[in-house]
Amino acid sequence: MDDFLRLSASTARFTYGAPRAFAFGADGRLLWFLRSTGPTDPVDSLWVLDTATGAEALVADPRELCPEPGPLPTAERRLRERTRLAADGIGSYALSGDGRRAVFALYGQLYGASVDEPGQPAEPGKPEEIPAAGPAVDPRPNADGSRTAYVTGDALYVTPGGRVSPADGARWGLAEFAAAEELGRSRGHWWSPDGVTLLAARVDETALQRRWFADPVHPELPAEDFAYPEAGGPNADVQLWVLGPDGARIRLDWDAETCPYVSDAGWESETEILLTVQDRLQRTVLLLSADPASGRTRELSRTAHPQWVGPLVPGTPARLPDGRMLTAADTPGGAARALAVDSVPITGDGIQVRGVAGVHEGRLLITAGRRDPAEQQVLLLDPDGGEPAPVADGPGVHSVQASAGALLLTSADADGIRRTVRTPDGREFTPADLSEPLPYRVVPVLERVTEHGVPTALVLPRGHVPGRRLPVLMDSYGGPGMQDVCAEPRRWQARQWWADQGFAVVTVDNRGTSYVSPAFTHAMYRGFSEVTLEDQVAALHALAARHTDLDLGRVGIRGWSYGGYLSAMAVLRRPDVFHAAAAGAAPTDFRHYDTAYTERYLGLPQDHPEVYERDSLIADAPRLSRPLLLVTGLADDNVHPSHTLRLSQALTDAGRAHQLLALPGVTHMAPGGTREKIMAMELEFFRRELGA
C-alpha cells in the first residue's frame, strides 16, 4: 500500500482520536463523549466536558480497567456491526436520568462512573466494576443511577437485583436485526422515570431461517449462525412488556398483526409510554400512547403514504410540550419533506426537513437543506409557522444536539470538521479533536444534471492539465437511504486519492437516493435496477458533455454493498458504457436480502415476483463481456457471502471468466484496514483493464 492507504488504514479513515457519541447531562452542564488518545489509537475512553469551565476530564480508560481484554460478547459484536462501530474500547455508554452517572460494558464486564455533586467543579470519580450475572451487553442505569439493567445471554437483568425477564425461550432486552439494521432502533429496554419499572422488548426468532458462517481458515472451529429475516419470509415476533419490581408483567397491546415493526419506544412519564409502530410495507406509521398499568394503547398520530413513509425524519412523530402532535409529511407533489403540527403544515417546498433535534428557546431545533442537497443547515422554527431562523447556516453540513439551552454544533466543509459547545449565556468551547488532519482539501465539482436534476460530483487529479484525457472511475452507492454527493469532507479523501492515480472520479446520486425530494426518492418504488442504471448512465454522459477530458472509452465502476450491486449490474447490462467493474459485498438477488429494507421498496416477493426477477443479477451472468472483480467478506451477516458466491457460480456455469476475492473473517464493515487493502488491489485491476 502507498502512504495514503497506510494512513487511512491506521487512522480508520481519519476517525481515531475524534470525539464522538456526545450526550448532555446534568441539565446541560456536562457533555459526555468518547475519544481515543490520538490518530492511530483505536481504543476509545470515556470523557466529560464541564460546560461551566470548558475543562475536559478523563472518566474511564479501558486500558487501565481491562489490561488484557477478552473477546466481545457475540451480541455486542453484532450490535456494533449493526451500528457500524469500528472503534475498540468503550463502544457506547448510557447516562442516568440526572446525567451525572454513566454505565458501560467493556469486553463483557460492567462498569459505572459518576461525576461530583451539582455546583462543584466537575471531577469524575474512579470507575467501579458492577457485579453482573454474565457477559454484559447494552447496560442502562435508572434515573438516579442506583440500579443498572443489562442483557446477558438472552435475558434481561438488573443489578442490584437479578433476572427480571422470564425464561420462555425468547430473547429479552435487545433490538432484533430488522430494527437495528433498518429501522433506526438499536436498543431493547427502557427505565421508567421513577427508576423502578422497565419496558422491555421480547423477541421471538424461532420462525426465522438460520444463516450460517464458517471460517475456512479455521476448519476446526464450529460454524456460527443467527436468525435472519429474509424478504417475503417471517419476521421476528416483537412484543413490548412492562416488567414491574414485584414480578408483575404487562404486555402492551396494539395491532401487531397489522403493524409489526417497532421503530421507537420510551417513557413519556410514569403513567405513559410512547411507541412508534409501522406496518410491514411501511406505508403507515403510528404514534401510540400506552398505559403501563393496563397495556392498552391509543393512537395519537398517523402518517401514511401510498408507496412508503419516508425518508423518515428523526424526532418525529412526537408530542410537543404543549401537547400538540409533530409529524412529518410530504408537501403537495412530493417536492419537499415537511413538518406539520396537528396535521397543519408549518414548512413548505423551500425546506427539506431532515431531523428534529428538540425544542430550543421555545422553538423547534431542526436540521434541513434549503439550498443544495449536498448541504445541511441548523434552523430554529416556530411551531406555529413562519420563516426559520438560522443557527448554523454557512456552506457545508451542520448538525446539532441540545439540552437545557446548551448546544453542540458540528460543522463540516472542505476545510474540515469543527465542533462547538455553546452555553445558554453565550460562551463557547471546542472539544479537543486528536484525529489525523485530512490529507486533502477536496472541493469536488458539484453539478445537477439531466431532466431529473440528479446531483453529481467530479474529482480530478490535483494539478490536472486541461486537455489531458482521463479514464473515468464511477464511485457511487446509488441505493435508497443514502447520500453520496455531500459536503462532508471525509468522504472525498479516498476519491481524491483515486483521482491522483490518474482517474476522473464521478459520483452520482441517482433517483432513489436521499435528500433531493420525496418524489426523487420514491422514484425507486417497485424497482431498483432500471432507475439506478438509467440515471448513472445519463449523468455520466451529461458530465462528459460538459467536461471533455472525461474519456468515455475507458470507464470503470466500483462500489460496496448497494454500490457493489450497481457496479456488477453496470458491466452486465451496459457493457457499451462500462468497461470494468469491482463489486464489493453486492446483494445480487434481493429475494435473499432482509425484509424491512427490501419490502419497503420492492414489496413482497410473492406479490411482485417480476420485480424481484428484474432486479436480480443472477440471470444476467451469461451476458458478461467485461472484466469483473467480485469481493465478499465471508463473515458478512448483512449481505451474506452467498450473494456474491451465487453470482460467481452462475458466471462459472455460463463459462464467463471473472475474478473472485473471498475474505475470511471480514464483515460488511470490512474494518481494520481491509478496505484500503482492497483499494490497492482494485487499483491494479483498473490500471490493467482500462490502460490507466
Structure in words:
The mean pLDDT is 95. The longest helix is centred in the last third of the chain and has 18 residues, at 529-546. This protein has an eight-stranded mixed β-sheet with strand order 36-37-39-38-40-41-42-43, sandwiched between helices. Strands 1, 2, 3, 4 and 5 form a five-stranded mixed β-sheet that branches. Strands 13, 14, 15, 18 and 19 form a five-stranded antiparallel β-sheet that branches. Strand 40, helix 8 and strand 41 form a beta-alpha-beta unit. It folds into three domains: 17-163, Lipocalin, CATH 2.40.128; 168-309, no CATH class; 445-690, Rossmann fold (3-Layer(aba) Sandwich), CATH 3.40.50.1820. The chain is of the alpha+beta class. The chain is globular and about 70 Å long. The two termini are 18 Å apart. It is built from twelve helices and 43 strands.
Total of helices: 12
β-sheet strand percentage: 25-35%
Uncertain spans, ≥5 residues at pLDDT below 50? none
What's the story with the biggest beta sheet?
8 strands, mixed
CATH topology of the largest domain: Rossmann fold
Shape: globular
Q: How confident overall, as mean pLDDT?
A: 95
Instruction: Provide the domain count.
Output: 3
Named at the architecture level, the CATH assignment of the largest domain is 3-Layer(aba) Sandwich
Helix and strand content put the structural class at alpha+beta
Sequence of strands across the biggest β-sheet: 36-37-39-38-40-41-42-43
Helical residue percent band: 10-25%
Q: What's the CATH C level of the largest domain?
A: Alpha Beta
CATH homologous superfamily caption of the largest domain:
Alpha/Beta hydrolase fold, catalytic domain
Q: What is the rounded distance between the termini?
A: 18 Å
Radius of gyration based on Cα positions: 25 Å
Secondary structure tally: strands:
43
